[in-house]
Amino acid sequence: MDLFLENFASLASLQQIYPLLLQGLELTVLLALVTLPLSIATGLAVAIVYSFGGSLVRRITIILIDLLRSFPVIVLLILIFYSLPFFGIKLGNFTAVVVALVINNTGYFGEIFRAGLLSIPKGQHEAAAALGLHRGHTMLLIILPQVLKKVLAPLASNSLELVKTTSIASMVALPELLRSARVAQEQTYNPTPLTAAAVIFFVMLWPFSHWVSRMERRAIIGSNQR
């Protein structure tokens, strides 16, 4: 037991490298705070375009959503960061990670919102039109509030996955939490920083994960009672 604690839970190593872990945690949180609202906004925009568009626009939107969801985010990040400079476009590490995460998650959030929009009866659109409401007003005031209530659970679940995916920033040497832990491990010759990073991720994400699970169970129970 003493050997295990010395290698995986060394207080001396932790005291030496905790500033690195805090720096990595700050960057991880910043990535999540930037990419999450952008991904939700672009996903919602794609779903609204699908809702308002004709048959051709809808086909193109479906292809776009499927393409974005099927493209591995790591490959996307590598293409953005290493390939775009050959075309005269050079993005910084942080910007490249944000762009890759937003592009990838736009597909997931777009499909969530699209499914939510399709679940609203067409009669509500027709009733709003009969009352003289513009399509934009109908979407904003009547449809979207219902959609958000229906898709809250999958929206929260995908948001949780997005936060986990921020660790891909280490692929372009961005010092997020996981990379900072690896650098700290190299400095201390001890895996304690990796253990600490795992604990930080768990403490940060478990309450949110528990909340998401409760919402999903409620959604299942609600659908079974209908």
From TrEMBL:
Residues 25-212 form the ABC transmembrane type-1 domain. PROSITE patterns: ABC_TM1. It is found in: Cell inner membrane; Cell membrane. The chain crosses the membrane at residues 29-50, 62-84, 194-212. CDD domains: TM_PBP2 (cd06261). Signal peptide: none annotated. It is a multi-pass membrane protein. Keywords: Amino-acid transport, Cell membrane, Membrane, Transmembrane, Transmembrane helix, Transport. Pfam families: BPD_transp_1. Belongs to the binding-protein-dependent transport system permease family. HisMQ subfamily. Part of the binding-protein-dependent transport system for glutamine; probably responsible for the translocation of the substrate across the membrane. This is Amino acid ABC transporter permease. It comes from Neorhizobium phenanthreniclasticum.
